[in-house]
Amino acid sequence: EVVGVLCLVSLAAALDFKYHHAEELEAYLKEVHDAYSSFTHLHSIGRSVEGRDLWVLVLGRFPTHHKIGIPEFKYVANMHGDETVGREILLHLIDYLVTNYRRDPNITQLLNNTRIHIMPTMNPDGFEATKVPDCYYSQGRYNKNGEDLNRNFPDAFENNNVTIQPETQAVMNWIKNETFVLSANLHGGALVASYTFDNGNSVTGSSKGYSRSPDDDVFIHLAKTYSFNHASMYKGTGCDNRQTFPEGITNGFSWYQLEGGMQDYNYVWGQCFEITLELSCCKYPPADQLEKFWRDNKVALIEYIKQVHLGVKGQVTDKNGNPIANAIVEAKGRPHVCPYRTNEHGEYFLLLLPGKYVINATVPGFKSMLKTVEIPDNTGNFSALKHDFSFSEVSIRTRPASCPKTPLYQQLERSSAAVKPTLHSLVLMTVMILTFK
Questions:
Q1: Which of 57, 81, 164, 420 could form a disulfide with 127 if both were Cys (CB 3.0 to 4.6 A apart)?
Q2: What residues form the membrane-spanning segments (predicted)?
């Protein structure tokens, strides 16, 4: 037992409030994994342009693989290499989680019921290239090829004519290979929680200066969960008098429009709700401020992870009890332009606020099943409401279904201009076209 305690002490001592460059960051993550191998898993999801590993530390009771019923959560920081606060506070979050697991009941329950993926840096090359830390913009924002990674994803509204970078491709593959439910990406240069959509068109109401997703209420709740648990973000004062954000949140498009952003990609193609957290007015602040940034964000980081347990989850099975992959499961009245489908285990996860909903499960070619559910707030119990669907007449293996990476909302806008049907019928048409393609 003494050895264990010494191990904890040396690790805690090892993580100072300073900036950790590539070698130190890698060494720290490996130390953590060695010391806590029973509930952590360390892997690289790819490499940067200059060949640096994109490390992800996974924490949970089953760290190496997805377990049915346990939702997947992720934090990604430092996709702009010169925005550095997120990179360091994620290392401190890791430290806090591993040293409190099996000691603090809250953290223990969180890790037992959630699989948490933490990527401290998505742009290690940009961080290393930022030689002179500055509060404002620098070349280190971009990857080694000079590309802005937060403009580099497929866009749901317009053709994004960029070359997909290795870092972006690695994240896209990662999203495809895991069943992520909730996520946040950490930035700097402002103090606000920003949510989908970052881009828009008439279908999402962007002509009114706000680009609304079908889950706007959930996104507002997620953004407020962060801002109100943060030391000061909720005050909404922003970083100068020109910019104020009531309650410390903003719709991305309302703030400024961007195409090829990571949060919209997660939501449309990854079935994962992601928000963008701007954590510091200064992009690359002095190291002596890092401890205060950690204190300001600690509670918010934990409370935000808990929101992965909002809503309803379950499995869709056939008459023999086998899981049905690629069944469409959505809440009535909030269709996604790329329909949300079950994973290979037949699982679905829908983030919904407490209330009454009709859940529609559809196996292409068969009659839909509708179920009215009353969703409580279960985040405190670390488990969403569970509801399974069994299709007694089905005994099929469904074909893999993927949404094309074309600008889906652009197609909706075209068809709505022509015939002006509702978004719902348009989405259903899209579903039918995709299903029978």
A1: 81
A2: none
**CB-facing half-sphere around the CA of 104: CA atoms within 13 A:** 11
Name 260's Cβ contacts closer than 8 Å, sequence gap at least 6: 150, 151, 152, 153, 154, 155, 160, 162
Same domain, 260 and 340: no
According to the model, what pLDDT value does residue 173 have?
Answer: 98
For residue 363, give every residue at least 6 positions away whose Cβ sits within 8 Å of its Cβ, in sequence order, or none: 316, 324, 327, 328, 391, 394, 396, 398
- Whether residue 278 lies in the annotated active site: yes
Q: Pairing between strand 53-59 and 115-119? A: antiparallel
- Among candidate residues 309, 342, 362, the one where a domain is terminated: 309
The interaxial angle of helices 105-113 and 85-100, nearest 10 deg, is: 100
Decide: 336 and 216 in contact? Cβ < 8 Å: no
pLDDT of residue 399: 73
411, part of any domain: no
CA distance 16 to 22: 15
Which ranges of 344-393 does DSSP label H, i.e. alpha helix? Answer: none
Q: Specify the pLDDT at position 80.
A: 98
**Active site residue: 83, 88, 278, 330, which one?**
278
In a domain, 338, yes or no: yes
Q: Which domain holds residue 327?
A: 312-390
Residue 165, token pair as written in the block: 């970078």
Residues facing 55 on adjacent strands? 44
Task: Spell out, as residue ranges, where the chain has pLDDT lower than 50.
Answer: 2, 6, 9-10, 12-13, 421, 431-437
* Distance (Å, whole) CA 304 – CA 431: 32
